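cron nightly-structures :: item 1 of 1
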Amino acid sequence: MAYAIDLSARQSSRTLEQAVRHHAEILIYPRIIADGDPIVSRLVSIETPIGWQSRRPCLVLETFNGLTIQPNCTADKGDSEATALDSLVGTYCDVMLQLGENRYLFCSDVVAVQGPSGSGARPRMYLARPESMQVAQRRRSWRFRPAQSSRVELTWINAEKSKTEGIGWLCNVSAEGLACRCEMAVAEQLGIGEQITLSFALTPGDPERFVLDSVLCNKTPAGTEGTMILGLQFLLGQGHQASAAAAEALRRKLLARYAPVVDTPGGTAQ
């Protein structure tokens, strides 16, 4: 399943903050190069360069490949890549940001290129920070729908820096994320990119509960009036070791309980 939704400026800002925290992968597709391979990079920071003519906030990207380098070029590889990238300054590009199982899309222009700062360093590109983005979700793993919906406890820190709680009901789950249905009053307090701690069991009454950190990736209207479906991606990287361990335990339990029905018509996998 694939779809795209527009994010507000606030939602886009939250997503970029998460992307910086996780040094998300970014693919850059220069518009002046037709059918070329993307420039692969990772997001290092967001900053407003000092002393430059432009005072626009920029995404600072460390690149891992560049444009085609001429075979007879005698300059250092990193320097020659930066020289090739210089041709993109002032041009537009389409950008795809990978965060969890979601792909975020936006267009931007190349503000500057900086050569390697030392041995082993990579060239950096500065892209104008987008005001808004789109999210195009593509699930990379099966999600399983329990026969009975269990309660999902959601905890997050609100704008006033105080702990806030809400309740949802499990719709489907995988070792990478879940979807839950909640009241509109809860959903309206949450923005795309919000970090939320989840506590849930696979079925009502199951004594084994899973506690995982997650990020809110999308919100869609549910079939029942006054409710929303939240799509949440588990955070399993650096700083979320406990979540990673819980996700592995969840994966094993899902395989033990649901694996036999994955290829069965009418099964509970989706």
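cron nightly-structures :: done
The first strand starts at residue 2 and ends at 6.
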